[in-house]
Write a structure and sequence with these properties.
The chain is of the alpha/beta class. The longest helix is centred in the middle third of the chain and has 33 residues, at 494-526.
Amino acid sequence: MRQYFAIKGKYPGALLLFRVGDFYETFLEDAVKTSKVLGIALTKRSNGSAASVELAGFPHHALDLYLPKLVKAGYRVAICDQLEDPKQAKGIVQRGVTELVTPGLSFSEAVLDKRANHYLASIFFDKGILGMAFLDLSTGEFFVTQGASDYIQKVLHHLAPSEVIFNKKQQNVWNNFTQNLFHTYALDEWVFQLEYAYGLLNSHFGTHSLKGFGIADYPAAIVAAGVVLHYLSETEHKEIKHIRSIVRLQEHQYVWMDPFTVKALELMVPQQVGGTALIEILDRTVTPMGARLLKKWLLFPLKAVVPIQKRLAIVEYLSEDAEWAASLVSYLKKIGDIERLISKVAVGRVNPREMVALKRALEQVQCIQKTLQATSSSLLQKLNAQLHGCPSLVESIHHTLQEDPPILTHQGGLIRPHVNDQLDVLNKIIYEGKDYLVQLQQKESKRTNIPSLKVSYNRVFGYYLEVPNAHKNKVPPDWIRKQTLAGVERYITDTLKQYEEKILHAGEEAQLLEQQLYQALVEEAVAYIPQIQENAKHIAQLDCYLSFAKQACEQHYSKPIIDEGTLLHLKGNRHPVIEQRLPVDKTYTPNDICLDPSEQQIIVITGPNMAGKSALLRQVALTVLMAQMGSFVPAAWAHIGVVDKIFTRVGASDNLAQGESTFMMEMVETASIMHNLSDRSLVLMDEIGRGTSTYDGISIAWALVEYLHNHPQYRPKTLFASHYHELNELAKELPRVKNFNVAVQEIDRKILFLHKLVAGGSAHSFGIHVAQMAGMPSMILERAREVLAHLSQVGGKMHAKIEAFPKGQYQLKLFGPDEDLSGLKALLEAIDISALSPIEALLKLNDLKNMVKGFKS
């Protein structure tokens, strides 16, 4: 317990998992927290003290099961391991913390998601300008940005860090900045100083200035980055050679999407249980690096035309030769997570099997290099030139390590024969010594005529001879008795002790030598960190291109025309997610969309609910996003002038915890859009104003369309879906507003959704028809039709004609309003009740019953 308290004192803010034998134990307050989070038993034990202490533990092999739960609960966890073999220890086993895991810092595969980045973030609030830094310790990716509050909030929500560090004295500022529940850790104010941060960064990168990284003029970002490096030191992460560079995330390079838009378009997470996000449809990558990069491409689409066109050109080339592309995919599948492997090399946490996996990954890189040499694409040739096969390292690993080595370095059997002469000699002694012991047993058994003689080993005596009591009278005088047990006697001999020393000494020497040889191999691999990180970067890009190509071929996507113009013209456009989730026997109805700021800037789309207005709006935004991230698009043909901002106001989103209603949130999000417009914006607005009264809603929607049309600076391309068919009148006054509707066909008071966008406004909303499809009781539908007919006659002036409303007759009816009762009426009128006998009455009743069976309930 003295040892425990000494180690715990160094990590006061962390749960200490203390290795004792085959268990990780926690004590006192840590035990209470651990038992609660993990749902394991909380016990008490005296542990040599006068008072008992709380204790909770779990088997060491269950670490991968329990550690993620503790980290995801927001705890910092210090893992304290036994640093020596307990069998060889004299007295108390030496222990020490081998890893301090926080929600944002981990190398554990049980904590990390292979297909997602695991970011630690720091934020610095500095007089209206905010700085942020993001680090994925598992890959070495390190970047910064700074800007206004709304931009930083957007980046924070896009990247969703696992842990955020901030200034203790800015707790209230942080609380007001975001309502989301991030795991956080507060540091002292002195850490957030520009001079201190500048010095840390220069010291780490071995530079005298940060100009080479392009961040010298971004003080808030520099402070945030310095805080991250300070936190690494504080959490015992000293070996960080793999953090080789720092990159600035530039706001003007990427399409602006606020958190509302990312959520509404369901880019990363579906809004409904059982739904499908766009990333699930797009992601056909086969490497963890590719999956992580694809998420970033989706959240940060490009605005510059040339880089987009380069991506599209590579995808086009790969999609034209499916067999050749498939050969590249087959090599990529065997690479694994080379990015995180080389990071483990840098921090000295790589095990022998992972080193062999690194070798195999590099062999696949060499195969990819050979395959790409045959390409006629200059862009792919350029990518190939940046790959490194690292043949020397591959040869070293192959020459040094066994093909299937143990995970731990002290288990033996790690190094191949003929790598080191001394090791070969020691191994020979070990294995020949064991053979000698077998021979010794056989020889002594024969000499003494003791058939059940055994040669065994324990920590107290080392090697010994064991003789059953029935044969102890046959023991020769040169044997030395060491122990008497029930039924057996144990002896040693001088010859046995000499061989024991020789074997044990050889085993210890061989183990130490193997560890030294392995460590030298790891040090050799450290020199290849830059090349292998470059490999990971370009392999990820190639994986994304191949993913796009596969998707394009399978789903019949087309290559979009991307230019600096302002036209947005889509022919045969489909929704990428809905299309792939339709039943096999159904096809998605494509639509044409054309937005041109000079002719058709705003399209007002009317039509009933369920007709597909929202899906149409979303598919246009998703198509633009896909094009600007470098993917082919779900359309027969597409011409897209680059968009710089995408705004959506789709669907309701209450924030009841903050006292904000659906309508309030709708107005907040809409106001944000109106304040951030640009000439290249794409604005998608769905059912604006439905959260308030009809006239208020129409008035707000009307004013918004006018504002977007008459804006003094910008002409944002806009799709405005509404069930207020009164908005059709706007097209008569505003020349760049055009009316369209989603076609429906009305047959016998029922509607058929055609999902086709046609020119012209919708006459009415078909709300009663939709209510009928939803199974609304028939008397409510009839009453709604009466009220609708009355309002239509009086021009919607409900308050002026309230006295003249038709009275509701809420009497339960035997039959529905749509039934044809003429046959039933004729039958009843033909019956002469006074002339019926009882039998005839029953027969007539049976006829009536059969007739009623044909009616709907």
